[in-house]
Amino acid sequence: MFKPTKLAVLLSSAVALAACGEKEVELKTEQDKVSYGIGYNVGSGMRQEGLEEMNVEAIALGLQDSLADKERRLTMEELTAAFNEVRARQQDKQKAVNDENARAGKEFLEQNAERDNITTLDSGLQYEVLKSGEEGASSPGISDMVTTHYHGTLVDGTVFDSSVDRGQPATFPVGGVIKGWIEALQLMKVGDKWKLYVPADLAYGAQSPSPKIPPNSALVFEVELLSIKNEDS
């Protein structure tokens, strides 16, 4: 029995978007506006899935046949085979992208490790000290809360998150962040500002938390440790 996948749902839903084609549509009524919103969201989902090249005319034909309660023009076996083929292509394409991201990150870290001011830990995490805090300042433990300012970029310099840009420091538990941060924070002291170079396996790996961070990306952070709140304080 054919079971709709995420890809199948996107394709079947997209008929509403495709039916409009290039026709000028007035968005006056609430129904018009909601219909447009549904179509736009479906289109966004298709784009994220890499389905921009789907046949718009075929999508519209499927919509028309469905609304008219006509018999499908393709058997379930044909549809299943087609969906599986497209899904396999998308997976191969995504794997190639992921592999390229991993390669780029590895090359960046290998070159970066050769710089004199870079410290590379056994885990693969790299850091450089931009500013040191006061002598005798404390370091946080894994159960502590910390307040930091940070600026996060991809290895090509693209910014994906920055408390500095927002003008608002971030407070969070040391044990609640990515592995690279957990390791670095416990080595830092209040007042320290470090630049972290985090391998993909110490960041988010293949599971990207945001479209701004491609899977298997090495990440770069400038982190300033502003304060620590101990668990018992």
UniProtKB/TrEMBL annotation:
- Annotated Gene Ontology MF terms? isomerase activity
Enzyme Commission numbers on file? 5.2.1.8
Alphabetical keyword list:
Isomerase, Rotamase, Signal
Superkingdom of the organism of origin: Bacteria
For the PPIase FKBP-type domain, which residue ranges apply?
143-229
SUPFAM superfamilies, per the entry: FKBP-like (SSF54534)
Top class in the EC scheme: isomerase
Q: Which reaction does this enzyme catalyse, per its entry?
A: [protein]-peptidylproline (omega=180) = [protein]-peptidylproline (omega=0)
Question: Per its UniProt record, what InterPro entries does this chain match?
Answer: PPIase_dom_sf (IPR046357), PPIase_FKBP_dom (IPR001179), PPIase_FKBP_N (IPR000774), PPIase_FKBP_N_sf (IPR036944)
Family annotation (Pfam families): FKBP_C, FKBP_N
The positions making up the signal sequence are 1-18
| Family to which the UniProt record says this protein belongs | Belongs to the FKBP-type PPIase family.
* Name of the protein: Peptidyl-prolyl cis-trans isomerase
Organism of derivation: Litoribacillus peritrichatus
